[in-house]
Amino acid sequence: MMMKEKPIDIRSLVLKNGLSYPDDRELIMLILGTGTRQMPVEVMSDKILKTILHSNPDEWVEKMCQIDGVGSSRALAVAAALELGRRHNRNPQAVVNKPIDVIPFIKHYAMQPSEHFVCITVNGGREIINIQVICVGAGNMAIIKPADIFSQPIKDRASGIILCHNHPGGHAEPSDQDIQTTNRLAKASQVLGLALLDHLIVTKNGYFSFLEHSMLPTGQE
Fold first, then answer.
1. What are the E-state strand segments in the chain?
2. Cα–Cα distance for residue pair 114/130, rounded to 1 Å
3. pTM above the 0.70 mark?
4. Which tens digits make up the pLDDT trace of 75-118?
5. Residue 8 has what DSSP assignment?
6. Are 86 and 94 in contact (CB under 8 A)?
7. Residue 30 CB coordination number (10 Å)
8. Which residues are bridge partners to 119 per DSSP?
9. How does 94-110 read in b/e, with b if 16+ C-beta sit within 10 Å?
10. Who contacts 182 (Cβ-Cβ below 8 Å, separation ≥6)?
11. Helix/strand/coil for 66
């Protein structure tokens, strides 16, 4: 007879390790608290996370309500937490003068078991406008398309962007594919009049900055 897997006690883990410990799905579990008989909180959180990643913010509540067991109260609770985070990220004090300034906003991605590619948009004063996950679990930088990267910066009327992705393996040094993709996206950003300010690679052991290592293509930053 197979033993039933014990549910994750995410509250105890967060109290012990802090809010930087859980991944995105587990943060949603923390917001929801419980699931339903038909839909365990782990499964519900996974479905909500996929909805967030693959739809526009103005569609989140409606699409979350379409998930069995979520309902308007749970959907609004998650949406409210996301809006609070968005407002915090747009705090005028969140100014990016050097790579380390943006690390607090993206360091949790270093704990993710799959690769996350993130785009941070900034205004002319280098204040953070938006932080968006472009794709998850790609494992191949070559498949990232400029259109996926630049649609949000154009919508935000940003003057510059900072790219970021994590290396789940723990080594922060860029691969040849990382370098080629950075060069390709830098050319596209120049055409659009956007400054590519940096490309950061984050891991559990630290980070790598293309800017700090003078690896941004000429004409950037």
1. 116-122, 128-136, 160-166, 195-203, 206-209
2. 22
3. no
4. 999 999 888 877 665 554 578 888 778 888 888 888 778 888 89
5. P
6. no
7. 17
8. 132, 163
9. bebeebeebbebbebbb
10. 163, 174, 196, 199, 210, 215, 216, 217
11. coil
